[in-house]
């Protein structure tokens, strides 16, 4: 039986001034399992990103309960959440969101420094290895403004995994990239998942969604369906795309 | 551009940049308030004192005379001089006095109150107004200047004793009230006037006459000499002419021109006005730096909006005009509010200082002077805004659309690597290096503020807790105790009394007497050991034909070291060579120094002219020694130490000035941090969001933010301290020249030097940490794409 990483029970989210009937998330119940490449899909405005952010503790829920490894995180204070982010979670956003005055190398290393379980030398070594793995080692001393969007996003992925998190949260990580860069980023995430990395990704792109092993569909703030897929091998891409498209069509996507 | 467009844009600017506007308003308010207050106090003081001197009938020159056989004949002789219009005579008694157990440092002069001749204003008991009708002074009653309240802590109903002759013959008076003395009422002037009735005057004059050589007091007169209208003679030439062409020199105790008296009366106001004007100028520069930073940040923040507005057809000129209008609201608002607040502050300040200035100065706003000063500042600020907004012209719709955030280059990356240990510090340092332009303004402001408070710190250190620095500047030579023997007391006897408490390490003799130098009256400091003079240039007057003069006397007499000048004492005169320039701020620097042998060339010594200055082995015994001498010899000796009652007013004023400076500096740092900090936080909110997503706590980021200000202010403080070490003494010297001190030289201890820097750095850090509290509210929406 798979280990549950995140468990959400009856979570609701509404923003200031919104009535209960206008909730972005409406009593969502779901579990995220270790080792899965979970994809959240849905129409625009369905609450996909909001769901990702409340599950990761970045945003607060209005009601309900979110647990990480059986510990409730929805009531954690800022310090506890910061510790969780620096040790257990990794984030990849639609835009790379690298710190503008740190080099690519420093952007990755600073995230490693925060997790004090490794020495500075170990962090620097691992940052170098990751940047090599992401194929940005030649640009590692450049600033984010001096590299391409693809290079920046690959660096963001390296930053997300330098502290070996349990779970990576990715919010439309290919949304701002061209096709080639998107493929590279998705390949990296797939490769990480193959190595056992748990990933929760929000996307509205079928091409990205086929990388997942478990797909959830969100509509009007509720999970209305899910499907599972075997691990992505690269050879079955077309077949997976058809499968996912058919599933989405059945949900009137 | 239509009027409504301007209003719409102004409203938008206000919503977006209200913190900047409030900050600018506040800074200008402080500048306007302090400048209007200090300029009004300065001008009102000078104008009022001069007016009152004229109203009371004090002429261009006043001569204090004594031992005059026929005062009417002398007054007539002087009045007949071609350069003299008329002469007014006030009869008086010169006498030392004792209040609340404290001896006066200088003589007092008891003047007969005659409202018909000299209509002094009499204060009401509360010192808030004047009596409407002339008062009658009964025998035994006396009216005093309010400054004696601060100098001797004397109240109405208390007693003042005047020793008139030896063997304890004295006259006691009860303080009945206060009068306004625009002539010597300020606590900066040692000599004080007292108003008494005719009956008491006659009584005292009779005792003086009968006591003959045993008299301690003496009868005399003030001659108020008026120059003819349209006379072009300078006060010193006028003085010289009268000395040469009348019998006045034979009776003179001392003379002063009306300008010199005015200078003494408003000395405190003039010196402090000088400091505060320099401080206000510093604040204007600080304000311009903040304004410049605010304009640059505003343009940076609104870059895209401005590009869009240009695409919609708005011109650069219209956008710049809008910026000018926006900041004008803060500047003009601050100025007008400052003017309004100053009206209350001027009145309050003058009311509070009446026991120091001795006069009730009108609290009106000096409209022309303040208007002119603020007008200049306004033009300066508008010109500066016009210059700083020129960047708007470079914004094009295309550049705005294509604008991409982030730093283009990072030249100094290698010198500030990011380390794991002290991560906050390294990140703060990186931010400083990459966004140094934003911090240059903070650094410059810190330099200016630290420079100024270090300058005040240097003045305080020079002054010392007991004012010894200032006393040394006023005294021709240093001392612990001064003893002037009035009767037949043996010097050895005095020294035996002192020795019973502590040893005497050294002693010398000093006498102060009136001489004329090239025909102009000066005080001569005659000393038994000329090596004790504080020589600034040349050497001391060791030979009997040499004298030393102050820098002011040299300028006034137009002589330099090596020149010869004629010094006269009563009927005898001789030519002396100026051997050096020395420091002595007495009489605002109008004095000379000579050796005992030098004085013997023109005058004869009398035992009573000398004051013996002693240095004690154990200085803590000073008060005990003085008390013992007082108990033993009473009125037969006059004692003084290295202080004078007015000094405490200066020390108090300096302490208040220091508190005021620190207060203003604190407010300025607060505004600087809030203004620059809010802009920085706004521009960095995305990076702050990223750091938070990585696991940095808000507290961590707050600390790193405050650390940047701490580091910048530390650099600025070091530069400010360094600058003050190089320039402060010269600046203070130029301001203190007004009081006759030309060689201000401060020596700061490490603690005194570090205090301004430590205070400023701490304030920056604390305010920045508090301002960075906003980081708690930074959410991750900045990282999300809608």
Q: H/E order of the elements of chain A?
A: EEEHEEHEHHHEHEHEEH
Average pLDDT of chain B: 87
Classify the secondary structure makeup of chain B into a structural class. Answer: alpha+beta
> Mind describing the biggest β-sheet of chain A?
6 strands, mixed
What is the percent of helical residues of chain B? 40-55%
Distance between the termini of chain A: 32 Å
Helix tally of chain A equals: 8
Rg of chain A computed from alpha carbons, rounded to a whole number of angstroms: 18 Å
Percentage of residues in DSSP E strands of chain A = 15-25%
Q: State the total count of DSSP E strands of chain A.
A: 10
- Choose one word for the global shape of chain A: globular
| First and last CA, distance of chain B | 34 Å
Order of neighbouring strands in the sheet with most strands of chain B: 10-5-2-11-1-12
Low-confidence runs of chain B (pLDDT<50, min 5 residues)? none
The helix content of chain A, as a percent range, equals 25-40%
Discrete helix count of chain B: 22
| Rg of chain B (C-alpha, Å) | 33 Å
Instruction: Label the overall shape of chain B.
Output: elongated
Quick gist of this model?
By secondary structure, chain A is an alpha/beta fold. Chain A contains 8 helices and 10 strands.
């Amino acid at each position: 039986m798979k280990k549950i990483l995140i468990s959400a029970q009856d979570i609701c989210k509404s923003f200031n001034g919104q009535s209960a009937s206008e909730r972005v998330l409406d009593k969502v119940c779901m579990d995220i399992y270790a080792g899965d490449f979970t994809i959240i899909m849905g129409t625009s405005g369905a609450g996909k990103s909001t769901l990702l952010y409340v599950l990761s503790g970045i945003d607060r829920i209005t009601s309900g309960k979110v647990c990480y490894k059986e510990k409730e995180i929805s009531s954690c204070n800022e310090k506890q959440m910061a510790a969780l982010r620096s040790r257990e979670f990794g984030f990849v956003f639609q835009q790379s969101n690298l710190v503008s005055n740190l080099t690519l190398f420093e952007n990755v290393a600073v995230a490693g420094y925060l997790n004090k379980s490794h020495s500075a030398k170990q962090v620097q070594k691992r940052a170098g290895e990751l940047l090599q793995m992401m194929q940005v080692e030649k640009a590692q001393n450049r600033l984010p403004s001096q590299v391409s969007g693809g290079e920046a996003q690959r660096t963001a992925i390296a930053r997300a995994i330098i502290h070996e998190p349990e779970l990576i949260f990715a919010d439309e990580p290919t949304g701002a990239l061209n096709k080639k860069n998107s493929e590279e980023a998705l390949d990296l995430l797939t490769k990480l998942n193959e190595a056992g990395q748990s990933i929760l990704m929000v996307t509205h792109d079928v091409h990205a969604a086929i990388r997942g092993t478990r797909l959830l569909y969100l509509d009007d703030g509720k999970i209305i369906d899910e499907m599972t897929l075997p691990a992505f091998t690269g050879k079955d891409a077309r077949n997976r795309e058809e499968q996912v498209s058919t599933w989405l069509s059945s949900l009137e996507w | 551009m239509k009027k409504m467009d301007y209003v719409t844009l102004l409203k938008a600017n206000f919503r977006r940049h209200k913190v900047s506007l409030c900050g600018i308003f506040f800074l200008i308010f402080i500048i306007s308030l302090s400048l209007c207050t200090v300029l009004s106090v300065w001008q009102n003081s000078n104008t009022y004192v001069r007016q009152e001197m004229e109203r009371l009938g004090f002429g261009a020159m006043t001569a204090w005379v004594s031992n005059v056989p026929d005062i009417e004949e002398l007054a007539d002789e002087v009045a007949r001089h071609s350069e003299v219009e008329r002469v007014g005579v006030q009869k008086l008694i010169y006498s030392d006095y004792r209040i609340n157990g404290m001896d006066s440092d200088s003589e007092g002069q008891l003047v007969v109150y005659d409202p018909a001749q000299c209509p002094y204003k009499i204060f009401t008991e509360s010192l808030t107004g004047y009596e409407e009708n002339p008062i009658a002074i009964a025998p035994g009653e006396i009216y005093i200047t309010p400054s004696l309240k601060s100098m001797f802590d004397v109240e109405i109903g208390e007693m003042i004793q005047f020793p008139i002759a030896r063997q304890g013959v004295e006259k006691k008076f009860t303080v009945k009230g206060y009068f306004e003395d625009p002539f010597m009422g300020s606590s900066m002037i040692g000599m004080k006037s007292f108003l008494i009735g005719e009956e008491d005057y006659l009584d005292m004059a009779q005792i003086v006459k009968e006591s003959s050589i045993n008299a301690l007091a003496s009868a005399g007169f003030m001659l108020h000499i008026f120059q003819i209208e349209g006379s072009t003679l300078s006060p010193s030439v006028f003085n010289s002419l009268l000395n040469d062409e009348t019998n006045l020199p034979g009776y003179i105790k001392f003379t002063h021109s009306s300008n010199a008296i005015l200078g003494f009366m408003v000395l405190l106001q003039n010196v402090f006005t000088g400091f505060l004007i320099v401080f206000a100028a510093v604040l204007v520069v600080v304000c311009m730096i903040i304004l410049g930073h605010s304009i640059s940040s505003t343009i940076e923040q609104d870059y895209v909006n401005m590009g869009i507005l240009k695409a919609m057809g708005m011109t650069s000129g219209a956008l710049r005009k809008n910026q000018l209008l926006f900041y004008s609201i803060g500047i003009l608002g601050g100025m007008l509010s400052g003017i309004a607040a100053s009206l209350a502050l001027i009145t309050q300040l003058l009311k509070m200082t009446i026991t120091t200035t001795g006069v009730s100065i009108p609290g009106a706003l000096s409209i022309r002077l303040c208007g002119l000063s603020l007008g200049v500042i306004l033009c300066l600020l508008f010109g500066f805004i016009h210059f700083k907004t020129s960047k708007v012209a470079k914004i094009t719709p295309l550049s705005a659309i294509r604008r991409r955030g982030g730093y283009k280059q990072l030249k100094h990356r290698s010198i500030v690597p990011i380390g794991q240990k002290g991560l906050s510090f390294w990140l703060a340092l990186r931010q400083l290096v990459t966004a140094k332009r934003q911090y240059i303004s903070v650094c410059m402001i810190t330099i200016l503020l630290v420079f100024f408070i270090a300058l005040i710190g240097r003045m305080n250190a020079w002054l010392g807790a007991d004012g010894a620095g200032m006393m040394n500047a006023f005294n021709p030579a240093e001392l612990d105790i001064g003893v002037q023997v009035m009767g037949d007391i043996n010097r050895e006897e005095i020294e035996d009394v002192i020795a019973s408490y502590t040893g005497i390490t050294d002693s010398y003799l000093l006498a102060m007497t009136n001489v004329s130098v090239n025909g102009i009256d000066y005080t001569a400091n005659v000393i038994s050991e000329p090596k004790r003079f504080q020589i600034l240039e040349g050497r001391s007057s060791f030979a009997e034909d040499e004298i030393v003069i102050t820098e002011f006397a040299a300028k006034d007499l137009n002589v330099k070291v090596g020149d010869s000048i004629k010094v006269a004492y009563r009927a005898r005169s001789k030519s002396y060579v100026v051997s050096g320039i020395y420091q002595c701020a007495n009489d605002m620097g109008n004095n000379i120094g000579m050796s005992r042998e030098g004085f013997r060339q023109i005058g004869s010594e009398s035992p009573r002219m000398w004051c013996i200055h002693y240095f004690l082995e154990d200085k803590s015994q000073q008060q005990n020694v003085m008390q013992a001498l007082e108990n033993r010899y009473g009125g037969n000796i006059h004692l003084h130490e290295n202080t004078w009652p007015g000094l405490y007013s200066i020390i108090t004023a300096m302490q208040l000035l220091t508190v005021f400076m620190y207060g203003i500096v604190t407010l300025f740092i607060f505004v600087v941090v809030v203004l620059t900090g809010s802009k920085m936080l706004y521009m960095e909110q995305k990076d702050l969001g990223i750091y938070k997503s990585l696991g940095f706590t808000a507290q961590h980021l707050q600390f790193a933010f405050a650390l940047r200000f701490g580091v910048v202010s530390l650099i600025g403080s070091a530069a400010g301290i360094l600058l003050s070490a190089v320039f402060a003494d010269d600046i203070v010297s130029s301001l203190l020249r007004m009081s006759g001190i030309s060689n201000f030289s401060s020596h700061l201890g490490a603690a005194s030097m570090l205090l301004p820097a430590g205070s400023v750095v701490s304030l920056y850090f604390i305010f920045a940490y508090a301002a960075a509290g906003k980081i708690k509210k930074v959410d991750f929406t900045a990282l999300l794409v809608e």
